[in-house]
Design goal:
The protein is of the alpha+beta class. The protein has helices at residues 3-63, 83-89, 93-96, 101-105, 108-122, 171-184, 205-221, 240-246, 250-253, 270-282, 325-352, 354-373, 378-389, 400-403, 411-417, 420-428, 437-443, 464-479, 490-500, 507-518; strands at 68-73, 78-81, 133-139, 145-157, 160-169, 226-230, 235-238, 287-294, 300-309, 315-323. The strands form two sheets. It has a five-stranded antiparallel beta sheet with strand order 2-1-5-4-3. The chain has a five-stranded antiparallel beta sheet with strand order 7-6-10-9-8, sandwiched between helices.
Length: 528
C-alpha cells in the first residue's frame, strides 16, 4: 500500500467518523422530537377525555331542565334543542338542528318582527328581547299556538356568537289567571324559573375553558335556586340564587349536606332519597322526583330532583327549586271562590226546599266515600263533593207543593220532576268549574243500560263522577225518609244496588259502595 493509499484511507475514516457523529446527533434529535410528540398526544388525549366528561355532564343537566332551552347562531339557525323543548314543541331534536328557529317555533305573524329585531341587534342597535323576561306566543309542531315566557341571552366568545333562549309553557298559568280574574278581580302571574343552557364544545383545551365560562355564566343567571349533590347528599355545585336563599356565599355551601343549608330539614327530602335509590339500581338518569317544600319563612318551593350518573358512573343529583308561593295562593283563592259559588247555590236550594238541601249534603258525603274506596285522586273526589252538593239544584224551578207532597206523584207531576236534571244543567253549564259539576247535575239519573233520563245515555257515555253520584243518590233516597214514605233502611238500599249492579249501575261503583257499607262499616250516621 502506497503512502497515497494510506492518506486516502485516513481521509475516508475521518469522513466516516464525521458522518457517524452527525447520524448520532440526528438520532438524538429524533428521540427528543418523538418524546415531545408523545407528550403532546397524551395532553390532547387528556383534554379530549375532560371535554367528553364535561359534555356528558352538560348534556345530562341540559336534558333534565324543567323548561325549554333552545340556542341559535347569529344566522338564526338552531344549534341546541333540549328534551323539555322536544316535549313542549313536539319536535325531535335531530329534526330541528340546523333549521331556522323562526320557521320552527315562532308563529307566522311574529316571524318578520323576530328577524328584523335580530338584524337590528347585529347592526349594533338595542333589542328588547335580550336579557329581559317577556311573554309572547310560541308555536308547536302541529301549528297550535300557546302562551310562553321567554328570556334570551347573547354570549360572545371570540368570533362565535350564540343566542340562548329559556322558554316556559305558561298556557295553564294563563288559564288560572283568567279564572281568578272572573271571581276575585285580581291576578298574580306565577314566577318563572330559568334553567341552564350550555353550548356544544369543540375538541380542544381552549374550548373546554370557553365552555366552562359559558356554563358558569348561564348557571348563575338562573333566578331560581339550583344545586347538585353527590351520593352522600353533599353539595358539589350551586348557583348564586341558591346561595342567596341560604344566606351564604357559593363557596361556603360547597361540601355541606344540602338539607342543613337550604331547604333546612331533618334529613334529605323523601323524594330525593327515592330518586337516588332508583338511580343507583337502574343507572343513568333513572331517578326523578317532584315534591313541595315549605321553608321557615312560609314560602313554598317545588323541588324537582333528577338523579343521574356522570361519565365515570358516579351518582349525583340535580335539584331545581321553583318558588310556587304565589301560584299556590292563587289556586287556593280560586278554590275558595268556587266553593263559595257552590255554597251560594246550595243555600238557594235549601231556602226553596230544606229536604233537598239535606239530601244533597248526604249524597255528597256518600259519593266521596265511594270515590275514596275506588282510590280516586283527591281533586276528582273534591269535584264529586262539589257536584253532589248541588246535583238536584234543578228542582229549584218546581212548585214546593210537588217537592213536599206526602202522597204518590201523578204522571204529570212525575214528568215535571224528571225535568230537574236538564234544568240543573242549564243553570250550571256556563259556570267555569274545574270539575264536571254541570254534567253531574245533568247525568245523575242516567243508567248504564240507557233506561235513565233525561238523555238515555248508556255505559261510559255518562261521566264517572255522575255514575258515582247516581249510586249514592239511590242509597240515600231509599235509606232515609221521603215526603211520601218512611225510610226503607240501608239494607234494602244496598239490595237495590246489588240487584242493579252491572245492568243499571256501574259495576265498579256498585262494588265499592257495597264494600264500603258491608266491609268497612260505613253508616248513614257518617253523613251527618
Amino acid at each position: 500500500m502506497t503512502a497515497k493509499d494510506i492518506q486516502d484511507l485516513q481521509q475516508r475514516i475521518q469522513q466516516l467518523e464525521l458522518e457517524n457523529r452527525l447520524l448520532h446527533e440526528s438520532l438524538n434529535q429524533a428521540d427528543r422530537l418523538d418524546k415531545k410528540y408523545t407528550d403532546s398526544l397524551r395532553a390532547i388525549k387528556k383534554a379530549k377525555e375532560a371535554l367528553q366528561e364535561r359534555d356528558t355532564l352538560i348534556r345530562g343537566m341540559l336534558d333534565s331542565a324543567m323548561d325549554c332551552v333552545i340556542s341559535m347562531d347569529e344566522e338564526g339557525l338552531i344549534v341546541e334543542f333540549n328534551h323539555a323543548a322536544e316535549k313542549v314543541f313536539g319536535y325531535a331534536r335531530e329534526d330541528v338542528l340546523g333549521r331556522e328557529l323562526a320557521e320552527v317555533i315562532i308563529p307566522p305573524a311574529l316571524r318578520e318582527k323576530h328577524r328584523q329585531g335580530m338584524k337590528r341587534w347585529l347592526a349594533g342597535h338595542a333589542y328588547q328581547w335580550l336579557n329581559n323576561r317577556m311573554e309572547t306566543t310560541g308555536m308547536r309542531a302541529d301549528g297550535s299556538e300557546f302562551a310562553v315566557e321567554l328570556s334570551i341571552t347573547a354570549v360572545q366568545q371570540g368570533d362565535t356568537l350564540r343566542f340562548s333562549g329559556f322558554i316556559r309553557d305558561i298556557s295553564r298559568v294563563k288559564q288560572i289567571e283568567k279564572q281568578l280574574q272572573k271571581r276575585v278581580m285580581e291576578a298574580e302571574q306565577a314566577r318563572s324559573s330559568m334553567l341552564l343552557m350550555l353550548e356544544d364544545l369543540n375538541e380542544s383545551t381552549a374550548n373546554i375553558e370557553r365552555a366552562k365560562t359559558e356554563w358558569e355564566q348561564t348557571f348563575d343567571a338562573v333566578t331560581d335556586p339550583v344545586f347538585s349533590h353527590d351520593e352522600y347528599f353533599q353539595i358539589i355545585r350551586a348557583n348564586r340564587a341558591y346561595a342567596e336563599h341560604a344566606g351564604m356565599s357559593v363557596q361556603d355551601v360547597i361540601g355541606k349536606p344540602y338539607w342543613q343549608v337550604f331547604p333546612k330539614c331533618e334529613g334529605p327530602l323523601p323524594g330525593c332519597l327515592h330518586a337516588c335509590a332508583k338511580g343507583k339500581t337502574e343507572g343513568k338518569r333513572a331517578g326523578e322526583a317532584e315534591e313541595e317544600v315549605r321553608t321557615e319563612d312560609g314560602r313554598i318551593f317545588l323541588s324537582r330532583n333528577y338523579s343521574m350518573s356522570d361519565a365515570k358512573g358516579k351518582l349525583y343529583a340535580v335539584h331545581f327549586m321553583e318558588d310556587i308561593t304565589e301560584r299556590t295562593q292563587l289556586a287556593d283563592r280560586l278554590r275558595e271562590s268556587l266553593e263559595g259559588t257552590i255554597h251560594a247555590i246550595a243555600s238557594a236550594a235549601e231556602v226553596r226546599d230544606p229536604y233537598t238541601a239535606g239530601h244533597q249534603e248526604r249524597v255528597a258525603e256518600i259519593a266521596c266515600a265511594i270515590g275514596n274506596e275506588m282510590g280516586l285522586e283527591n281533586d276528582q273526589i273534591e269535584g264529586i263533593r262539589m257536584g253532589g252538593k248541588i246535583h238536584d239544584i234543578g228542582k229549584i224551578h218546581l212548585p214546593s207543593e210537588i217537592l213536599s207532597k206526602p202522597t204518590r206523584l201523578t204522571e204529570i207531576e212525575y214528568t215535571l220532576i224528571q225535568s230537574h236534571p236538564q234544568v240543573g244543567y242549564e243553570l250550571l253549564k256556563d259556570i267555569d268549574f274545574p270539575w264536571p259539576v254541570a254534567d253531574i247535575a245533568h247525568q245523575h239519573h242516567e243508567r248504564m243500560d240507557g233506561s235513565g233520563y233525561p238523555q238515555g245515555l248508556k255505559g261510559e257515555e255518562t261521566c264517572l263522577e255522575a255514575r258515582i253520584v247516581a249510586v249514592a243518590d239511590v242509597v240515600e233516597a231509599m235509606a232515609n225518609h221521603r215526603p211520601y214514605r218512611p225510610g226503607l233502611g240501608i239494607e234494602k238500599a244496598l239490595a237495590e244496588i246489588e240487584r242493579g249492579r252491572g245492568s243499571i249501575y256501574d259495576t265498579d261503583v256498585a262494588n265499592a259502595c257495597l264494600h264500603l257499607f258491608r266491609e268497612h262499616g260505613f253508616t248513614m250516621d257518617d253523613t251527618h
